[in-house]
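Sharing a chain and its predicted structure for anyone who wants a worked example. Both blocks are below, sequence first, tokens second.
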Amino acid sequence: MGITPETSTSDTQAGLVNIDGPQGLDEAVFVALGCNDKGVWADCREALEAVLARFRSEGIDVVARSSWWASQAWPNPNDPPFLNGVVLVRTAHDPHALMAALGRIEEAFGRRRTALNAPRTLDLDLIAYGREQGDCGGLILPHPRAAERRFVMGPLAEIAPDWVHPVAGQTATALLSAAQVGRDARPLA
């Protein structure tokens, strides 16, 4: 993917990145991260920071990242609260190879798939892969529920407010305003 930020790698921490023109956003690859079970880490923030450090070894370079967002667990608010974020990445992986790499990272961080929406040490979702859309060999792109989730659209809008959802045709900022799931989601200071 040919994303070229106008900021240096050291400027990718929680901030807006100006991507060269609309075509850059058309090629954008976004990954969402979430955690509500700290596992062996001191807290979910430390776990997610460790995950980001692991990306490079899987051929995934973080170009920009959002701040961490806190929200109640969904759909069961009695579960531990979530910490979420979104990263803009550059990778030579195709969508399936990228999903395989994300799966390896989840496994390395103790992700166990038990009950649907159960607390988890790590949840990595491929939100968008350029303008790819539809069923791409069993992988649905863009992520079919991301646009409804404030804890995804909020972080995404932080780093790419003008990104246009390939199916909905709305910007990340507009989708954030309309998102109904996780209305309590908020960025941490």
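Comments welcome. The two ends are 31 Å apart (CA to CA).
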